[in-house]
Specification:
The protein is an alpha/beta fold. It has 2 domains: about 160 residues, no CATH class; about 260 residues, SGNH hydrolase (Rossmann fold, 3-Layer(aba) Sandwich), CATH 3.40.50.1110. Helix content is about 40%, strand content about 10%. It has 14 helices and 14 strands. The strands form 5 sheets. A 6-stranded parallel beta sheet has the order 6-7-5-8-9-10, with helices on both faces. Helix 1 runs antiparallel to helix 4, helix 9 packs parallel to helix 11 and helix 12 packs across helix 13. The protein is globular, with a radius of gyration of 25 Å.
Length: about 475
């Protein structure tokens, strides 16, 4: 009986698929007929107008492949602006075409005419409208045949049957973040961090929020890719309790897997806080966790603390092995709680951070440091492969920050007469840093003219533009999170 039911369901879905395509084609024909003029004498004039429109659009600047939605924009206006009528089809993280917001990130693939240019705005708009009719009609048709109801939060929960008949949600609807300043969006306290002082946050949202950048950081881009708002920092969860529906950010700037130089929860403690929200506060169910993504960042604070404590060069390899071992234990612990997808960052090229290239006038990276980073990343690859082999569900994925950073450096090299390794915001003297002021409140830092052209914001952290570039390089890895 189970097989008959499954076959019947498959047949119904197949009928719905074919019928909806026919209807979509019919809708497109109607739209084309509606836009046409029966007077054949005007056809040459119309063709000339279409050609002029295409030529005009060919001269316009094509939208960036990785596009950040701005205030007031909709998928319809973006489709017309960028010449891409198939935005929904090519962005699986879009759950509802009517629900996009400023900061939402999408992939743009402009359509090309026979002459090699971008298609005209009118045609793009027409195709977009037809595609939306198709998707909405198809969704309604499947609801009618299979009795599926949309979820209360207006996100289409895509379901897939596994071999044992269980239903698994393919939509990742919550994000839980663990780590350090590369992912912290406001946990670190104002009294201990310059990230709560100007000029941090000047690009987004226009004021300091605790992010170690002029704007968005990795967490924001991953959340946007998922089609959700950035999860609320753990320390602010009680102020906006409704916001925990997107997940929680437990990351604290300056921390690592072990105790570092800052007094803040390390990764083990962050995971314990997460466990408390699940078992004590009961904020999340096992279904919630099964449709969630954990983002785990380790940007090297453990190694900074090792050097500050006069760790020896001879003992570094052993220390790296212990860091990766603890990181792997943390990843497994998160998975054992019920989170089905976990993305962990590879270590970025520490030898290319401005704090390590200043002695080279920001002209080259420190090769010795990057060799140590490569050893860390090799051990991480081995640890993740072992975890995936043990769990049998390919739950663990690496976001390769090292390659993302290095590919950007090689691609851009020197720009605008300066080095890409040079930060936008630096202290005027060695004892000062970005955001520093003297006892009179006078600024003791220098700011570049255009933060949008700088990869690094300060001595350690990328700018929003830098993270945008890194995010673009991570697209393929992020798409692998979706089965």
């Amino acid at each position: 009986m189970a097989n008959i039911s499954s076959s019947s369901s498959t047949s119904a879905a197949s009928v719905a698929e074919r019928f909806s395509w026919y209807c979509a084609l019919f809708l497109l024909v109607l739209l084309l007929l509606d836009c046409s003029d029966p007077d054949e004498s005007e056809l040459p004039i119309q063709m000339h107008q279409i050609t002029e429109r295409v030529n005009y659009n060919n001269k316009k600047k094509v939208c960036d492949e990785i596009y950040v939605v701005e205030k007031g924009e909709t998928l319809h206006t973006i489709s017309e602006k960028c010449g891409d009528p198939f935005i929904v089809e090519k962005n699986p993280h879009i759950h509802d075409p009517d629900d996009v917001f400023p900061g939402f990130v999408i992939k743009i693939t402009p359509n090309v005419s026979l002459s090699g240019g971008v298609i005209g705005g009118s045609l793009a708009s027409l195709l977009y409208t037809a595609s939306q009719h198709y998707y909405r009609f198809k969704f309604s048709l499947v609801i009618g045949i299979q009795g599926v109801e949309s979820s209360s939060n207006h996100q289409q929960q895509h379901l897939q049957k596994s071999n044992n008949g269980d239903l698994h949600r393919l939509t990742l609807s919550k994000l839980f973040v663990f780590g350090d300043s590369y992912t912290d969006t406001g946990n670190i306290r104002k009294s201990v961090s310059s990230s709560w002082k100007l000029p941090y946050g000047i690009t987004f949202p226009g004021k300091p929020t605790g992010r170690f950048s002029d704007g968005r950081v990795l967490t924001d881009y991953v959340a946007s890719f998922m089609g959700i708002k950035s999860p609320i920092p753990y320390r602010r969860r009680m102020m906006k309790r409704k916001s925990v529906r997107y997940g929680v950010n437990f990351a604290w700037g300056g921390t690592g897997v072990f105790k570092t130089l800052v007094s803040a929860p390390n990764m083990t403690t962050q995971i314990r806080l997460f466990q408390r929200l699940i078992h004590h506060d009961r904020l999340y169910t096992q279904d919630d966790l099964a449709s969630s993504l954990a983002l785990v960042s380790l940007a090297g604070n453990d190694y900074g603390a090792y050097n500050a404590r006069n760790g020896s060069a001879q003992g570094l390899r052993g220390f790296i092995a212990s860091v990766v071992k603890q990181l792997a234990l943390n990843l497994k612990r998160i998975h054992d709680m019920g989170v089905k997808k976990i993305a962990v960052t590879a270590l970025e090229p520490l030898g290319c951070l401005p704090q390590n290239t200043v002695k080279f006038s920001y002209q080259k990276c420190n090769g010795s440091l990057n060799m140590a980073v490569n050893f860390h990343n090799l051990l991480l690859q081995q640890a993740v492969a072992k975890l995936n082999n043990e769990t049998k569900d390919s739950a663990f994925h690496i976001l390769n920050l090292y390659d993302a950073f290095m590919s950007t450096f090689k691609r851009h090299g020197n720009h605008s007469g300066g080095s890409i390794l040079k930060p936008c915001c630096v202290g005027m003297k060695q004892e000062f840093s970005c955001g520093s002021v003297d006892e009179t409140g006078k600024k003791q830092y220098r700011l570049c003219q255009n933060p949008h052209s700088a990869f690094f914001w300060d001595d350690v952290h990328p700018s929003q533009a830098g993270w945008h570039t890194v995010y673009a390089a991570l697209q393929a890895s992020l798409f692998q999170l979706y089965p």
